[in-house]
Amino acid sequence: MDMKTPEKKLGIKERYRYLTRDLAWEPSYRSHDEIYPYLAYEGIKIHDWDKWEDPFRLTMDAYWKYQGEKERKFYAIIDAHAQNNGHLNITDGRYLSALKIFLQAISPGEYAAHKGFSRAGREFAGAGTQVACQMQALDEIRHAQTQIHALSNYNKYYNGFHAFSDHRDRIWYTSVARSFFDDAMAAGPFEFMIAIGFSFEYVLTNLLFVPFMSGAAYNGDMATVTFGFSAQSDEARHMTLGLECIKFMLEQDPDNLPIVQKWIDKWFWRGFRVLGLVSTMMDYMLPKRVMSWREAWEIYGVENGGALFKDLAFYGIRPPKGWEDAGKAIDHMSHQFMLGFYQWRFGTAFHSWIPSDDDMNWLSQKYPTTFDKYYRPRWDYIRKAEAEGKPFKNFGLAKLCQCCQLPCVFTEPDDPSQLCHRQTTYKGEIYHFCSDGCQDVFENEPEKYVQAWLPMPQLFQDPVNGDLAAWMDWAFLTDGKDNGEYPGSGDQLNFDRWRGLATSNT
Amino acid sequence: MQIDLRTVTIEPQRQAFDHLVRRFGDKPASRYQEGSYDIQATENLHYRPTWDPQQELYDKAITQIVMKDWYDLKDPRQFFYNTYTLTRARQQEAAESNFRFIETHGLANVVSPALREKALAVLVPLRHVAWGANQNNTYICGYGYGTVFTQPCIYQAMDHLGIAQYLSRIGLAFGGTEALAAGKKAWIDAPAWQGLRRYIEDCLVTRDPFELFVAQNVALDGLLYPLVYGDMVDSGWAAEGGSGLALATQFMADWFDETRKWIDAVMKVAAAESAANRDTLTAWAGTWGARAAEVLLPVARLGLGEQAEEVMAERRAELAARLAKSGIKI
User: Fold this and answer.
1) Span B113-142, mean pLDDT?
2) Using a CB-CB distance cutoff of 8 angstroms, which residues of chain B are in contact with residue A157?
3) What is the largest CA-CA distance in chain B?
């Protein structure tokens, strides 16, 4: 009776093969090309899908079990957080701006990744690759939902969160992240994997999540820390998938190298521009700072990225084309972004503010070669104007980059005193760019980028027709509540009052 | 809602996100609502897909079904990731203890050789059918419109992968790797399976997400699951000494009872939307349903012998009755 079952004789790798890729078969009633119609047009050549090495071996029963345990813990913590007014434990209400940007711009990206990986999970012709993509599709909807659920309680008490679903599609700065994910989804399955699986999940994710979640921990935000930690083991799987993907493409055919290299150049630069939002959060929006953007870049960009590209050199891959320009921008970008947000604060569904003396001293210590020279004088000027009762506002509209969709606020890589501006003419129309990197991306695929939806021209079209108040209604921005400066805002008044009630006897 | 803290009140500023207030009124939203409604981008999509410039990135027009609001296709189970995962985590625990029970009690060895052969001949090739269902539901999730319609499809896809894996384990437990190889060979070559394989390969090239939903989830699964896990395993084989098989397929039987509620709800709402939808769904359900019954008949013969025709007729009538409740008369 206790005869061993044959199942036990299989090794883990062999057993996993039976439980995944052996399920697929070579079709004969329909052609390969009909079933997988999008595999050829990008020019990537795959000769043997069986050479795919499963980056992790997780069967569905184990997936349900582990993920179920994580889910139980996550929701127990955010329930307690909501019940106990956990929002009053954050260091200061200014911190909320980072969360608002996250919910408006990043969580929708998680959902886009969910859809993109579902598509990839169907379009690739190898069962091993498909299963890995499908699991990521499932994880990504988890991330979108856990983020919305974790931040839902903040929406009950603070402004700026309430219309994230509308802001995703209509407010100007979210189109930076939206266009990034739309770009990846509009690409073929292989480019999608380099864009999201490799560049975003592998090269850049540490620059987004580690600072963000550490920032949450430093600033007492238990809800956000919890979704960060809970997503971490998913992210580890996603990173191994991204790396396996690029190696697989490079090993399958030498002709794939130049295509993959071009995608790495493109998606590094696209991702670097999106990360500008993170730099501002780290240097300006966290009341208690974890490290400067410069320091994060040293660790997660220069060290980790450098080591990665050293490994990939084996395959003939060189570091991304924009790598040096990125390095030159590090000491400037967060300041340029925050000055931009501050001057256009009438149009943001989060608050900005003038940094305090303490903040500025910290910044000059972290950015010794740039802050005092280029940016402190501007903040001083703005502060003086404010003190004189003439607060500095820019009601002019930003010129947006046709590629990354950020306002063209950046300076020349080798001359911080000159605004960087590039333009190109395509079919009789002039297009503007913030950088060489963005111009390159456009010029490689102009037919794609001429289609970009640009929020500023929208202002002059129906139903807004250049009327700022009408634009605010259209964009679901509540004037005087969601936007403007933090000092004096409803968020500040409420946070300080509630916290006072919670921590003092008066 | 008011929360008292140190006898002092902190007043919430609002109850829910704006888009949920517009849909459901000014009251607290459920986690299903927060995690499902309006979380897909709808406006100002930036670029057309390079893989098919005729399509939008999220495109309502790639199916013949027309909905004024795709978020009407609510999942009555209200599955979002959390509730889905916790439900399956509990079910996999039960499945695991069933497999352990089969192993510790040597149930695989008490099945008669004749029944074992018959059961393996049916169940093992079904792991490929489940893989096809995984592909099709992944497709519907990827290309369908609106989260409440598409998110259950990724859950359904992963469920089918899980089912394919349970079927593989049954093959391994009752017949070893040879059983898997023989099952795959039958799937590729044996006449009894070729109609079904052609059906699935035809599904794999069907790129109207809603038609695929009908072909896979309504027509094929609507006949196959009651046939295999009801008529064969529970009603037939269990009495022939195959109670181990019933234990090993408990997951599939329970799963079908649960998922059909969602599928019926989707069909009902889509059919009630317009006469045009109802006609389209009726045509699809009729054609794919008839074809599914035809290709399943040889499979029914493998498991039920001469009762196959009679049982298939019953299953067809049952599916027709199910569809009629959703307003679709085939």
Assistant:
1) 97
2) 10, 12-13
3) 77
> Which uninterrupted H or E stretch holds A431?
strand A429-433
The three-class DSSP label of residue A399 is: coil
A42 three-class SS: coil
CA dist A193 and A195 (Å) reads 5
Instruction: Say if A142 is an interface residue toward chain B (CB within 8 Å).
Output: yes
User: What's the structural domain count of chain B?
Assistant: 1
- What pLDDT does B238 receive? 87
At position A145, the amino acid (one-letter code) is: Q
Output the domain CATH number for residue B149.
1.10.620.20
Range of the domain at B86: 80-325
- A144 to chain B, any CB pair closer than 8 A? The answer is yes
Short-list A268, A416, A419, CA closest to A332: A416
Q: What is the mean pLDDT of residues A352-364?
A: 97
CB proximity A428 to B under 8 Å? no
CATH architecture of A77-353+392-503: Orthogonal Bundle (1.10)
Q: Does A498 touch chain B (CB under 8 A)?
A: yes
Q: Which residues from A are below 8 Å from B3, CB to CB?
A: 85
Sequence-ordered list of residues with C-beta below 8 angstroms from that of A256, at least 6 positions apart, any chain: A44, A45, A249, A250
Asked if B103's CB is within 8 angstroms of A5's CB, the reply is yes
d(CA A113, CA A176) in angstroms, rounded, equals: 15
Contact state of B44 with A25 under an 8 Å Cβ cutoff: no
Task: Say what the pTM is.
Answer: 0.96
